[in-house]
């Protein structure tokens, strides 16, 4: 009964606060994941088709971002971004400190880290494509854009989906680190509630259960996407 009271949506419950924090967690993870998808696609193209300087730059990006702690990247974007914005405003005559919004800093940091991993997934997915299909498309007179839209993109997407699903789970867990910037996401809200009620075990357990529920739903969605993307392959059995 006490647990239900803590989760109630009344004036003495934390239901609304936890629900809003869960939405914030998903929102920052989704934005970061989408940013990472764009970065990853560009970096993968640089690794596969770019000139030597572009390939070296892409390799340096993935090596560095996969080699340093994610929390450090968040700190760099939040404090470094705030310093840069403050400097720009000071040039325009405005004094004082101007901070980067925690959501923007967090989503960007997750996106930059996620992009390094997604780039490798996209690169690996492209390398398993049947080169004969690409050559057949060129022989049929397909331009680069049509070839990419009709042959390359669908197959890269299908091969990349399992890896992309794992990276989404990583982005979802990384969202808990954004609390260091002051953003009230699920873990931060659980911490606030635990401090207010002196019931840390209950609220951290609730936060863990919500994370598991989001993860389970995400897995179901990606499983459905994999089945849908694999229609017509091996007689429709994937």
UniProtKB/TrEMBL annotation:
Principal location listed in the UniProt entry: membrane
Membrane topology per record: Multi-pass membrane protein
Matches recorded under Gene3D superfamilies: MetI-like
Keyword Transport in record: yes
Localization: Cell inner membrane; Cell membrane
Alphabetical UniProt keywords: Cell inner membrane, Cell membrane, Membrane, Transmembrane, Transmembrane helix, Transport
Record flagged with keyword Metal-binding: no
NCBIfam families noted in UniProt: HEQRo_perm_3TM (TIGR01726)
Cellular component annotations (GO), alphabetically ordered: ATP-binding cassette (ABC) transporter complex
Transmembrane segments: 16-45, 72-92, 98-117, 203-222
One function term, GO molecular function aspect: transmembrane transporter activity
Record-stated family: Belongs to the binding-protein-dependent transport system permease family. HisMQ subfamily.
InterPro entries linked: AA_ABC_transptr_permease_3TM, ABC_transp_permease_HisMQ, MetI-like, MetI-like_sf
Protein name: ABC transporter permease subunit
Domain (ABC transmembrane type-1) ranges: 18-222
């Amino acid at each position: 009964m006490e647990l239900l009271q803590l989760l109630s949506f009344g004036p003495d419950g934390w239901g609304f606060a936890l629900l809003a924090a869960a939405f914030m967690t998903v929102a920052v993870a989704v934005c970061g994941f989408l940013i990472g998808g764009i970065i990853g696609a560009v970096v993968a193209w640089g690794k596969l088709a770019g000139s030597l300087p572009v390939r070296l730059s892409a390799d340096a990006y993935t090596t560095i971002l996969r080699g340093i702690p994610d929390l450090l990247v968040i700190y760099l974007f939040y404090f470094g971004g705030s310093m840069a914005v403050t400097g720009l405003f000071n040039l325009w005559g405005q004094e004082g400190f101007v901070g980067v919004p925690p959501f923007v800093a967090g989503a960007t940091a997750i996106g930059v880290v996620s992009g390094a991993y997604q780039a490798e997934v996209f690169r690996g997915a492209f390398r398993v494509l049947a080169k004969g299909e690409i050559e057949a498309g060129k022989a049929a007179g397909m331009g680069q854009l049509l070839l990419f839209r009709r042959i390359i993109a669908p197959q890269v997407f299908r091969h990349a989906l399992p890896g992309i699903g794992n990276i989404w789970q990583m982005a979802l867990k990384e969202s808990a680190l954004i609390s260091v910037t002051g953003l009230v996401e699920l873990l931060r809200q659980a911490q606030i509630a635990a401090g207010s009620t002196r019931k840390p075990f209950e609220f951290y357990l609730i936060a863990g259960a919500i994370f598991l529920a989001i993860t389970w739903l995400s897995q179901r969605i990606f499983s459905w996407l994999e089945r849908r993307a694999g229609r017509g392959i091996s007689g429709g059995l994937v």
